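Give me the fold.
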Amino acid sequence: MQEEFMKTILMGRHEGTTGGMNLTWVKALEYSRAKNGVRSMTTNAPPKIDDSNHHKAALANSIKSIPKTKTITGSKDFRACRGLWMAASIMFRELASMTIFEQTNKHHETNALTSHHGPGCSSIGYGAAVELGPLKVGKKGAVLEFNQHSWNKEANLLFVESPIGVGFSYTNTSSDFTKIDDRFVAEDSYNFLVKWLKRFPQFKGHDFFISGESYAGHYVPQLAELIFDRNKNLKKYPFINLKGFIVGNPETNDYFDYKGLLEYAWSHSVISDQDYDNAKQACNFKLADWSNGCNKAMSIVFNRYKEIDIYNIYAPSCPLNNTSSSFTISSENEFSNTKPQNYGLRRMKFVPGGYDPCYSTYAEGYFNRIDVQNAMHINSRGLSDTVKWTVCNDSVFRKYNYTVFSVLPIYRKLIKGGLKIWMYSGDADGRVPVIGSRYCIEALQLPLKTPWTSWFHNHQVAGRIVEYEGLTFVTVRGAGHLVPLNKPTEALALIHSYLYGEPLPTHR
């Protein structure tokens, strides 16, 4: 039987920012292409690496088999994945990452680093396993489904689990958690990227883009700025061929984000006129620290959302017990002295909306399976025998240092620098709503290039698009916080348009 393969899935781990590096590899795994489902599985050697010692170390930790699932659904004639496990040991911090190579070979010279949610939420748990990857975790973590709309049809994807404490990322130095802020995350991500490109020099000249959602609205521009600045000092730093970034439902500026959140809740009938008026009078979102009156008023707003899914206000909530789709606030006192960025983030997790709101629960079920963790050598990495994996880590929420009020100055800088910048927004998201994003863009005062108009997909209005000099804004109709999950075909069309410059259709 003739076999075809979809490209390579690379799973990597990177520790810290300084010190010596030790890389190990694990054999690739390939699923054969079969007409009637998975019929065989073979091992394949990883890409050639100059250091033979690293290759020998990999063989000792080879993934011999993939843990069984009830079924792999979605196609009877499919290309699946082959994967590598990489570990880069630097100091005592270790970040997990996954690289999924472009599957069609049409756009193999385009790389995209993706960062999802946070602070504390998993790029692999949401981005790779729920939204963008070629395999999605199905019900109860027992089913893998092929994603016909995976973004690796358009580019090589690199998912980075950052900061420490996210997913299987960890640190042996507890004091590290007191240092975590946006700058810390950008520095770790930059150093990981540098070392990834060092191990894969064939990708150094490729166009490189960064994407992300939610709090990655902070991560992505700040990482882009770091790369942009260091590209000017090639005597000290390696060149990274950064072309631009794209962010979805991004936290951008605290004042506009929370102003938009409040107005969206009122305009979409989540809160009463009285709730809205009370919050407007009590809150000055321009302040870094909210008053007790503002905390009390906003507590009421967030509690109104407990009955529904704040991340997709028209979608059903997950009925499973203890699911991360439940939006809860344990007590008013918990937020009495918090900064606005931290308000409402301590207890809530970024929850997929759409027709099945329980995906985060399924992902946790899968990655907490002992056979899965054994196959990934998790408990051989110096951790405990069993590692509790969560889609979002509440302790990172609580310990994160929210030091950046606005990233709009970075937008101005990088727009002048010529980077390609897009922002997209699912218009059913109540957490980082489209209203706040529009306020942020308006504040940039960019010259209008192409006026607000509808764009179409499958002969239906998919959303709206407006182009400014240096920035494009796209809405996705009916999508929530997780646009690729809620509207996968529209999201794939959007990322294709962004990466390759083919305009979104503006006529049926």
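The longest helix spans residues 182-199.
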